[in-house]
Amino acid sequence: MILLFSAAVAPGLALFSYFYLRNQMATEPRKTLFQAFLFGALITFPIMFIQYVLKEEATITNRYLTEVLVSSGLEEFFKWLVILLVIFRHIEFDDPYDGILYGASVSLGFATVENVLYLLSFGIDTAILRAILPVSSHALFGVVMGYYFGKSKFAKNDKEREYLFLSIFAPLILHVTYNSILRFEGYWVYLIAPFMFYLWWLALRKVKLAHQHLVQHLYEQKYQ
User: Fold this and answer.
1) 96 and 152 in contact (C-beta within 8 Å)?
2) Tens of pLDDT along 184-198?
3) By the 8 A CB rule, do 119 and 12 touch?
4) Which of 12, 138, 148, 172 could form a disulfide with 108 if both were Cys (CB 3.0 to 4.6 A apart)?
5) Within 13 A of 134's CA, how many CA atoms are on the CB side?
6) What radius of gyration do the chain's Cα atoms show?
7) Which pTM value belongs to this model?
8) d(CA 96, CA 25)
9) In terms of Cα–Cα distance, which of 202, 168, 210, 181 is closest to 22?
10) How many domains does the chain have?
11) Which of 113, 98, 167, 104 is nearest to 137 (CA)?
12) How many CA atoms lie within 13 A of 124 on its CB side?
């Protein structure tokens, strides 16, 4: 049980540590980040409950809508809602890169609990594949979401709402694409690899841009 739990939690902690250590300009309070992680973990249960009810009640008869659009939409919406309601106006959200960290924290909280439950059901044999695909993809969706939250928070050109819209729309499109690829039985392996490379490239580009925004933000604070 300890081995299984460790295998389920380790990928999320490793990914979060990576994005946390990338922030060399400022140190975000660990307590606030841990709280964001916990909120992400807690929303796993209402999401899974709603997904279960929709499936059992056959509320939506189209399988694609149920497994791809509704599943992706619920997960990204709840993560987005947590950041918007709990974190976006928080005093500790004080520079553009913080969006990356809070987006990753909430997403990895959800992904970690989901991973624990999945490995408890299907065994540790799936741990490596789960770490490479679902856990890392959730983290990267969170990075993209957080990047646009950071842009919205510190927008100075009346684009706050535009960036806020992108903070839900961009990760949703990525998640829908990811889930759609997994439905190609027999072919998904050939499609998921280039998609994951693109997803990593996109997320790391957002990290780089967030660093540039952070440097500019600190410069403006110093000389204003």
Assistant:
1) no
2) 877 888 999 999 999
3) no
4) 12
5) 21
6) 18
7) 0.91
8) 11
9) 210
10) 1
11) 104
12) 10
